[in-house]
Write a structure and sequence with these properties.
17% of the residues lie in helices and 38% in strands. By secondary structure, the protein is an alpha+beta fold.
Length: 383
Amino acid sequence: MNRIPLRAAVVTLAFTTALARPAVAADSVMLKPKLMPGQPMYLEVTHDMQQKLSGLPGLPEGKPMTVKVYSIYGAFERPESGTRVTASFDRFLHRMQVPMFPQPLNYDSDDRFKPVSDDEEDDDGGMAEGFRTVFEPMIDMGVAYELSGDCEIKSISGVDAIFKKVEAANRVNPMWMQMKRQITDEGMKSLIGDLRYALYAGKEVKAGDTWTRTLRPKSPFLGDIVLDYRMKLEKTTSRDGRKVAELSFTETTKKAEGSENELNEMGMALESGLATGTAIFDIDLGQIVRVESEHEVRMGSPPPAEAEAKEKPKSGDEPKDDDEPKPAPQRRRIELNIKQTISLIPAADREKKKAEMKRQADEAKAAAAAKKEDKPAEPKSDD
C-alpha cells in the first residue's frame, strides 16, 4: 500500500492468458522464489491511480479535484545467486491529468524508439519536460537487493547513486521536489518487490491453505506503517501448458503503534488502507509472474476543534461580529484508488520489442530525411 508512484503506452505483458484447466486439488506447491543465475526476467509495475483532493489551498473554487495518474516502471532483474538480485531500470512512463491544466502531462522513455512524424517538432502531445529530466537519468541505472530466508527484501544498495544523479539534474525542478522523497531504500524496496515477495509462503502449501505476513516499512508518504497480509492458495491448475498456482490476498495498512498522531508535510495522517488482489505463481519457473490488485488509501487532517464564540455577550449588550462562532476550517483529505499490475516476463521478450521499435524508428527517420532531400526548393522571392 505504500506504493505511490514515481508513478507507464502499455505493452501488455501478461505471462499467461489461456483458459485454466483444473488440476488435482490436493497438489502441494513449494511457494518460495526460485532465483536462477543467468536467467534474467523483465519486471513491469503498472499503476492506474485516481487521487481525489479536498480542503487543500489552491483548489479551483475550493471544490474537490480528482487527479488521474497512469504510470509504468520497467526493470531487468538478473539473479546473481539464490538470494541476491540486481535490477536495472529500463522504462518509465508517466501520464498525469489535472483538471486545471488543458493538456495531460505525458512522458514515456520508450519514445526514444518512436518513429518520427512530420509534425513531431510542432506538437509534443503534452510532453512533460519535468518528468523527462527526472526519469531519463535513471535509465540503465540499477540497484541490488538481498532476500532473507523468509522472502523479504532485507537490504538494498545503489539507491543513493540514483538519487545523487537525478538530484544533480533537477535542483530547481518542482516535479523532482515532489518525487525525491520516493528515492529512498524503503521507497525502492516498495517499488520493485515488497508486495511481490510478501505473497510467498516460504514453504509447501496446498489448495485451501492460508498464511500471513507483516511488514513494517517507513513509507515516504505515510511514515511508519504496518502492512498486514493474509494469503490463500486457491488452486493449482494449468495455463498455456504451464503449471501454476492461483493465490488470493488481502492487505490492510495502519499506522505503526506510537505514530498515530504523526502528520506528513501536508498536515495529514493515514486513516485507512485496504488492498485485495490475486497472483499467479509459475510452478516450474518458481516465481510469481503476475499480481493484480486494487488499493484504497484514505488520508486526512485532524478533525478541527468545535468552533466557539470568543466571549459570551453580556446581558443588554449588542452582539458584535467577532462574538459569532468562527467556522471551522475545512478538513484536508486525500482519497487514493489504485489499480496495480505486476508482470514478470522473459527478458528476451522485452529486448525483442525494443529492437523492433528501434528498427521502425530508424526506418521512419531515414524515410523522413529522404523526403526532405527530395522536396523541391521553394522559389525565392524577388523582394
